[in-house]
Amino acid sequence: MSKKTVIIGATTNPSRYAYFAADRLTNAGHEIVPVGIKKGEVFGEEILDIKKSPEVTDVDTVTMYLGPQNQPEYYDYIVGLNPKRIIFNPGTENPELVKKAQEAGIETEYACTLVMLGSGVY
């Protein structure tokens, strides 16, 4: 089943994990919505400007590739996407955002999207 996934911290840089995740999610048949500060396109999808809080509906998963020091200004936006879950990839762990998400009824996981996809538990 396809899970619409918002990639927070999307990038066109092929050496970044957010780029690998976009590739693997696309290959696994999941719809991706790349969101970040970088301009460009990944796997046929335009990177939406996070500073403009782009509206995205029917979000299953938010996968985080934005360090905790850069997350606070986007808390309301991320929680407001109303995803079923937020995956905090290594280096993005943030207890403050986890608490806000859980209070809004959003499942949170400290995990790696790439490992989850590779092991079939995404």
Question: Could you walk me through the main structural features you see in this protein, from its secondary elements to its overall organization?
Answer:
InterPro entries: CoA-bd, NAD(P)-bd_dom_sf. This is CoA-binding protein. Pfam families: CoA_binding_2 (PF13380). The chain has 122 residues and is of the alpha/beta class. It has one domain: Rossmann fold, CATH 3.40.50.720. It contains 4 helices and 8 strands; from the N terminus they run E-H-E-E-E-E-E-H-E-H-E-H. The strands form 2 sheets. The chain has a 6-stranded parallel beta sheet, with helices on both faces. The longest helix is centred in the N-terminal third of the chain and has 11 residues. 33% of the residues are buried.
Keywords, please?
Rossmann fold, 8 strands, 122 residues, two-stranded antiparallel sheet, alpha/beta, 26% helix, CoA-binding protein, CoA-bd, six-stranded parallel β-sheet
